[in-house]
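in:
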């Protein structure tokens, strides 16, 4: 319902505009003013009304019309002038139709069809309010349930806060704080309205802290021990904590086991292989199933099953043909003339080079041995 103060202001505005010789559409301080950039086909807000987002959409429309100085056309504070003042009546029709066009452009086409025959922006605005501003139980229940179940998960602090605040703002729009209309509360000394506002703010912060990730449990405990600060202060402290963690690479979330295995250095992997080959048992025996030494096939884990907590390699071992290293270069050179060794001097040098590269980079030894063996066989065939 329109307040007496707004009605008096609107009447004074109409009287002053009517007595002014200037065209009201050219006065930048008048709600009838039309800027050259005002286009009836323009989209006033980016959010389109689809029937389920009335609270957020109406808020955005109200802000945009306030900037345009045309909110009076939808809140009913600027009634249509009489036909006695033709200039003012035409100016009102132009401005009203412009606002009506902006409203229609921001409404989904499925809803727009039922609003085409309203003559002014106020009737259209009021019809949408009656239809879609539902303060009923189902929507409040849905919001209450969403606020109770929302959690940060893997989102950042900023993303989690944005999602939470969207739900909270809509929730309190259905549950606003009471306002005094008789004026008695202006002289009240118990500050009951302030206490209610403080309690609502405390609930706001408490619900937000409930959904935080457990990695923030330390700072959450500190905030709960003292009187709850404002949401702005809480958000600032959590952002600082998140920034410090990013600098120290302390993410707080458990790393995936596959990622840890991939990040394991090659030396550690080879040490696991050596541990597997040095199992208790007969060190000089080799399993005919998996190729590892230290056990026989009847005690092979690949046949009888791996024990709990096994961290060694799984799978069959490659051919463990020993390759020469840099320390055995002289012995290879000394024995290069022995006819039982099917390698030429050039092949021995290649083996030494290959052995040196194996000490710095883990490569497929199976492939290397097969390559050398093939090369030796080819050399024997050529000889």
């Amino acid at each position: 319902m329109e307040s007496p103060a707004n009605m008096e202001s609107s009447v004074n505005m109409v009287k002053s505009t009517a007595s002014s010789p200037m065209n009201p559409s050219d006065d930048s301080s008048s709600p009838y003013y039309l800027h050259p950039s005002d286009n009836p086909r323009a989209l006033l807000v980016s959010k389109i009304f689809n029937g389920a987002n009335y609270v957020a959409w109406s808020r955005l429309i109200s802000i945009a019309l306030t900037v345009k100085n045309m909110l009076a056309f939808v809140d009913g504070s600027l009634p249509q002038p009489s036909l006695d003042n033709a200039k003012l009546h035409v100016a009102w029709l132009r401005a009203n139709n412009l606002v009506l066009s902006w409203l229609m452009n921001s409404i989904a086409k499925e809803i727009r069809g039922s609003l085409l025959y309203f003559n002014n922006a106020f009737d259209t605005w009021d019809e949408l309010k009656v239809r879609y501003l539902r303060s009923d139980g189902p929507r409040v229940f849905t919001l209450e349930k969403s606020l109770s179940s929302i959690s940060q998960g893997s989102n950042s602090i900023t993303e989690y806060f944005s999602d939470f605040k969207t739900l909270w703002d809509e929730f309190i729009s259905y549950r606003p704080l009471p306002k005094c209309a008789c004026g008695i509360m202006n002289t009240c000394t118990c500050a009951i309205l302030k206490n209610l506002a403080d309690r609502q703010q405390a609930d706001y912060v408490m619900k937000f802290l409930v959904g935080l990730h457990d990695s923030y449990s330390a700072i959450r405990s500190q905030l709960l021990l003292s009187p709850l600060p404002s949401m702005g202060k809480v958000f600032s402290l959590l952002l600082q904590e998140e920034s410090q963690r990013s600098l120290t690479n302390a993410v707080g979330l458990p790393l995936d086991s596959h990622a840890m295995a991939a990040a394991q250095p090659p030396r550690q992997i080879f040490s696991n292989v050596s541990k597997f080959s040095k199992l208790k048992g007969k060190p000089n025996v080799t399993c005919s199933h998996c190729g590892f030494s230290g056990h026989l096939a009847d005690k092979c884990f690949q046949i009888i099953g791996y024990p709990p907590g096994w961290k060694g390699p799984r799978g069959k071992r490659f051919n463990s043909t020993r390759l020469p290293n840099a320390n055995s270069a002289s012995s290879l050179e000394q024995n290069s003339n022995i006819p039982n060794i099917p390698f030429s001097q050039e092949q021995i040098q290649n083996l030494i080079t290959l052995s040196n590269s194996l000490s710095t980079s883990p490569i497929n030894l199976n492939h290397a041995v097969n390559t050398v063996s093939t090369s030796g066989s080819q050399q024997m065939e050529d000889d």
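note: The chain has four domains: 4-132, 137-248, 282-317, 326-382.
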